């Protein structure tokens, strides 16, 4: 009888240890993925409308910029300062580019940038008798930096105010809008 009890107790301890190892492994793997690979992000504010809306949720690819530099047009999450806040913006210029805006037109390296994603916002601004993008620049983006802007230019704190953003402060690229469910899409 005693042998059966000790065998049952040993089996129970082994099973408990296996469960604990599994939970630790799953927890560690989850933490690794969240910190280094991908994570959810809640859009806060209206600075990216009409591309992304307040309270929408996106999946952020954190690993992509270990492999490559951000490109013009990509929507990125940045951590611009010590406030602890993350912002979501669009990369409009990369290191070495000269960026400016004149007469509601964005220019990179002297060439006008076609920004189809701004069509609705430009129409709204024009209906209110204002321009969407106020004149600024020219600004040359230094090495190791990007110049970011919100798509809702009249309602965006971005590189026009804070300056070019260091690549060290780029958290990742927005890959997928997953909430609300009726709005699942790839952000463009």
From TrEMBL:
Gene Ontology CC terms: plasma membrane
Reaction(s) catalysed by this chain's protein: Cleavage of hydrophobic, N-terminal signal or leader sequences from secreted and periplasmic proteins
Principal EC category: hydrolase
GO biological process, one term: signal peptide processing
Localization: Cell membrane; Membrane
Domain Peptidase S26: 17-179
Active site feature: 47, 89
TM regions (residue ranges): 20-43
Alphabetized UniProt keyword annotations: Cell membrane, Hydrolase, Membrane, Protease, Transmembrane, Transmembrane helix
Membrane topology (UniProt): Single-pass type II membrane protein
One Pfam short name: Peptidase_S26
One GO MF term attached to the UniProt entry: serine-type endopeptidase activity
Major localisation: membrane
EC number(s) recorded for this UniProt protein: 3.4.21.89
PANTHER family (UniProt xref): CHLOROPLAST PROCESSING PEPTIDASE (PTHR43390:SF1), SIGNAL PEPTIDASE I (PTHR43390)
Family statement: Belongs to the peptidase S26 family.
Protein name: Signal peptidase I
Record organism: Brevibacillus aydinogluensis
Taxon lineage: Bacteria, Bacillati, Bacillota, Bacilli, Bacillales
């Amino acid at each position: 009888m005693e042998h059966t009890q000790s065998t049952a107790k040993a089996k129970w301890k082994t099973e408990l240890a296996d469960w604990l190892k599994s939970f630790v492994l799953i927890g560690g793997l989850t933490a690794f993925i969240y910190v280094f690979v991908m994570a959810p992000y809640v859009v806060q504010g209206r600075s990216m409308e009409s591309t992304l809306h307040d309270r929408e949720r996106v999946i952020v690819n954190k690993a992509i910029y270990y492999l490559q530099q951000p490109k013009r047009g990509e929507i990125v999450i940045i951590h611009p300062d010590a406030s602890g806040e993350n912002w979501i913006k669009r990369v409009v210029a990369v290191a070495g580019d000269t960026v400016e805006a004149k007469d509601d037109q964005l220019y990179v390296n002297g060439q006008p940038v076609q920004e189809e994603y701004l069509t609705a916002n430009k129409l709204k601004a024009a209906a209110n008798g204002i321009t969407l993008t106020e004149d600024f620049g020219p600004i040359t983006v230094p090495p190791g930096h990007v110049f970011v802007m919100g798509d809702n230019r009249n309602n965006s704190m971005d590189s026009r105010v804070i300056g070019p953003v260091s690549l060290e402060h780029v958290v990742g690229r927005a890959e997928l809008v997953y909430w609300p469910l009726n709005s699942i899409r790839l952000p463009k």
